[in-house]
């Protein structure tokens, strides 16, 4: 949701520079390079000025954002939102800690293997 608001409110300028009818450079968020700055001996200064053309296209983002507070909602919507919020918080309520009665119990040391002693094997 935050990404959607960010993308809808961003504004930027796209600059295009033409020399005659040929697109020379396009830039977003920066200045487009101009061919008029190049020093070409065959073209005079007057011809450079006449062939260069710059276009700027401004894309404006949304400026008016509607801010709604909880008090602006009607009573039924307030009940629904508060019920949803309360039930959502109860989903993450912690479980009671389980008591393990034999947690510290250590089994006795085995001196001999009883299955081998009695010759009882699971097949």
From TrEMBL:
- One Pfam family, short name please? DUF8199
Name listed for the protein in its UniProt record: Uncharacterized protein
């Amino acid at each position: 949701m935050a990404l959607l608001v960010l993308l809808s409110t961003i504004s930027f300028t796209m600059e295009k520079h033409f020399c005659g009818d040929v697109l020379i450079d396009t830039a977003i968020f920066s200045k487009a390079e101009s061919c008029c700055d190049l020093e070409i001996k065959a073209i005079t200064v007057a011809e450079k000025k006449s062939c260069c053309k710059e276009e700027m296209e401004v894309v404006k983002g949304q400026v008016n954002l509607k801010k709604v507070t909880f008090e602006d909602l009607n009573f039924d919507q307030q009940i629904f939102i508060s019920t949803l919020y309360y039930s959502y918080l109860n989903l993450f309520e912690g479980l009671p800690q389980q008591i393990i009665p034999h947690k510290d119990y250590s089994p006795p040391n085995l001196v001999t293997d009883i299955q081998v002693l009695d010759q009882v094997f699971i097949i």
